[in-house]
Specification:
Length: about 250
């Protein structure tokens, strides 16, 4: 029997042009900061953007994009709230500080419920912040969204993180998913690789090298982090330009 939610999801994604999954081989590499910053910068450039936080266990989206109104239903489903020009959804808006254990079928049901219930409207980009690793979230989204999906990976330049992201790149290649490239974060904290060294090792495009900026921790939302840390913003602007180049 075909799940009716699948047809609903297809319908709701008709006006979504491109979906970018932001993944990482391991946690702690700054994936949520990077993906939310890219969402904000794309929006500030006039693109219609939604940021979907699928990291159910370590949700950061509700801190990076704060909302001042209740999430409401509309004729087409759940109306995505807008924060600093970006349409956003995160389990953090619903859970507060409560634990949220999920496993197996429960997680898949939640993903189906979420994407079949949301009214995405017209979007140039849907940015999906995945949890670390290769769990249900990445397999579900790549198979559900098919040709609209591309992947951008975030890593740091530590040996452990690079080894794990290499494994993830092999999976993406085997599944024939469009890999935009890799963003190397916090490059000044770990081994000092040159750009060409990283390209040779990972055998893919490097979308950008982002430094560690400790001052961003003084600010909560991604808008505040970018506006108060110009050097951080400049590096992310270059990453955004490289991502847009992939779609031209």
């Amino acid at each position: 029997m075909i799940d009716p939610r699948l047809k609903l999801i297809d319908k709701k994604l008709e006006k979504v042009e491109s979906i970018i999954l932001f993944g990482s081989g391991k946690g702690g590499v700054g994936k949520s900061i990077i993906s939310s910053a890219i969402s904000y910068i794309l929006s500030s450039r006039g693109e219609s953007v939604a940021y979907i936080d699928l990291d159910f266990y370590g949700s950061a989206g509700s801190n990076l994009f704060t909302i001042n109104s209740q999430i409401r239903g509309c004729r087409g489903g759940i109306e995505l709230p807008v924060s600093d020009g970006v349409k956003v959804i995160s389990t953090g808006y619903f859970l507060s500080d409560n634990p949220f254990p999920l496993m197996g079928k429960d997680k898949l049901d939640l993903l189906l419920d979420l994407f079949s219930a949301i009214d995405f409207g017209s979007l140039d980009f849907m940015i999906i912040d995945l949890p670390p690793g290769m769990g249900d979230e990445i397999t579900f989204t790549q198979r559900m969204f098919k040709d609209k999906v591309s992947v951008a990976l975030v890593t740091v330049s530590s040996e452990m993180s690079l080894t794990v992201v290499e494994r993830l790149i092999k999976y993406i290649s085997a599944e024939r998913i469009n890999l935009l490239g890799v963003i190397v974060n916090m490059v000044n904290l770990f081994r000092n690789y040159r750009l060409e060294e990283l390209k040779d090792r990972l055998q893919t495009r490097i979308l950008g090298m982002v430094s560690y900026h400790p001052e961003i921790e003084l600010f909560r939302t991604i808008k505040e982090k970018l506006e108060n840390t110009p050097s951080f913003k400049n590096e992310l602007e270059e990453v955004v330009e490289n991502i847009l180049e992939c779609f031209r």
